[in-house]
Amino acid sequence: MSETNTTNQHVSFLKYQGKYKGLLGWILSTDHKRVGLLYLYTMLVFFSTAAILGLLMKLELIAPGMTIMGPQTYNAMFTVHGIIMIFIIVVPGLPAVFGNFFLPLMIGAKDVAFPRLNLLSWWVYVIGILTVLSSQFIGGWPDTGWTFYAPYSFRTPVNILPALFGAFILGFSSILTGINFIVTMHRMRCPGMTWFKMPLFPWTLYATAWIQVLATPVIGITLLLTVMERVMGVGIFNPAMGGDPILYQHLFWIYSHPAVYIMILPGMGVISEILPVFSRKRIYGYKAIVLSSLAIAFVGYFVWGHHMFTSGMSGRALYAFSFLTFLVAIPSAIKVFNWVSTMYKGSLNLQTPFYWAVSFIFVFMIGGLTGLVLGSLATNVHVHDTHFVVAHFHFIVFGGTGFSFMAALHYWFPKMFGRMYDRTWANTGWVIFFSGFLTLYLPMFYLGILGMPRRYYDYLPEFHGGNIISSLGAIAMIAGILIVFVNLIRSSRHGEKVTEKNPWGGRTLEWQTDTPPTLENWETEPTVTEQPYEYK
Amino acid sequence: MSQEKQHISSYTSHFVVLITLIILTGISVAVTRVEMGPLNTLVAMIIAGAKASVVLAWFMHLKFDNKLFAIFTALVLVIFLLVLYVTFFDYSYR
């Protein structure tokens, strides 16, 4: 546990002076709140980088033929965009930033169970990022796509090893965070906080943590096998040596589909926190939301084959995976039903976090319903590897994780920084971002149904119209991101000061402590006597 | 942290576990000489599972610890076995 003394007991964690000062006071701090912010700052840098790569790809696609880059550069662009966005941003995303910052606060603890392990997870994360980035200096950017599919990954002439090792190291960071959260929730809940009095964001972190701990080692082993295939030619995935490239896809997706739930479950938790607060109403179906989170985590382990419907799996496996995929839609639909029912007849308080939350439901519904098209064997074959998949994926992963991340940032911002952002600019940023998002990704569904394949820098002239609209949407969305980020960064230093503990009128524990919280979060250990979200 | 009661295993039980593991290793080697087709893999997995269970129960003290840990371990094993089953379901019918 972090050291403290009586003089520092009432000092904000932002101003606390420990053994180290300045930058060292941050990068060597074991305080869960500072570790959460370290993740936030790192992610903002890399999200911006990957978003710019995405914009450059859309500019390339604004017209047929070569516009601003050739095929090799385009291949590298979508690979690096994918690796950064998936392994560095959305997989660690909400748990690493908001889980670290708010889990102890929401369960009435002073810190996570293993504060030093927590700091180590950030350092491992940074080492993983540096390893991925070293690609540029040793053999060029990888060009296989973020999935590193066999046989591309051991036949490509560019040096794929740094990216594989980097993703391997990033996995360790994820496992350390998962273990820490599981132990924290089992051992450090404050008096009175039984499992079914725990808020829903920690519940989703709990479900996520189990996936992090159990599924991540599979991708670690798979990436190491790919390294061995490339360096030593062991023949496990190489068909020329008796190996099976489809085995790679099985192993990759055994991790990477549950990883989608690592990305989305905490986002669902955030939405479940925000809606009752801004509806001034008790959450509808608390236990149903808890159980659906656990059900998603469990069933989500067995649906990976829907990524492989055209890969050459056996017919019976195709049926089984399609059936299981439809099963996982049920708990997701339960959540949407509960969120809408929470708002029904609520006293709605229209603030920026609420806008982000309701737009999350909208884009998540589109992503979910188009997922049924992909989960169904007959339709999947037609839209496989087209822009339809890209659109669906971004509606779920960017729409789901991205919108909920923004919702969380605007919801908890005053508690984190003790300042309020400019609400007019925040709402303007949301409107532009949301409009840009829809303009960017909706045309991709249409292009995909027409048959435009993904991962090509060029296309037939008949796809031109949809691509122009989509590229203009990308420019609008980036403008929205800029407005949101500039507003938040500026407000974290110069925004209106917030001293009240509970500016939104929330009922969960993090709103009962100081703004911003002190080093050890609580002057006296809180005791919980009622359910969360009790609005009377 | 409160002082929790800890179970200390006797040398005898450790010795019995060691002998059990050696015997099971011997069986897993011997069984490779019997031609059973795809069942060879299944038998090898069952023996390996039995060895892992002995290590978990006695060496890692799962048998003497809070039952919650045993439940979680069992749940993880169930997930692992189901993942294996679903994967080989594809290979069996290809």
Walk me through the structure:
The complex is a heterodimer of chains A (536) and B (94). Chain A is mainly alpha-helical. Chain A has a single domain, classed as Cytochrome c oxidase-like, subunit I domain (Cytochrome C Oxidase, Chain A, Up-down Bundle). Chain A is 65% helix and 1% strand. Chain A has helices spanning 22-27, 32-60, 71-90, 93-106, 115-133, 152-155, 161-187, 200-232, 245-279, 286-299, 315-343, 352-375, 377-383, 387-417, 423-450, 464-494, and strands spanning 419-420, 496-497. Chain A has a two-stranded antiparallel ribbon with strand order 1-2. In chain A, helix 2 packs antiparallel against helix 4, helix 4 (93-106) packs antiparallel against helix 8 (200-232) and helix 7 packs antiparallel against helix 8. The model of chain A is unreliable at 1-7 (pLDDT under 50). Chain B has helices at residues 11-30, 39-59, 67-92. In chain B, helix 1 (11-30) runs antiparallel to helix 2. Chain B is flat. The interface between A and B is medium-sized, with 16 and 12 residues.
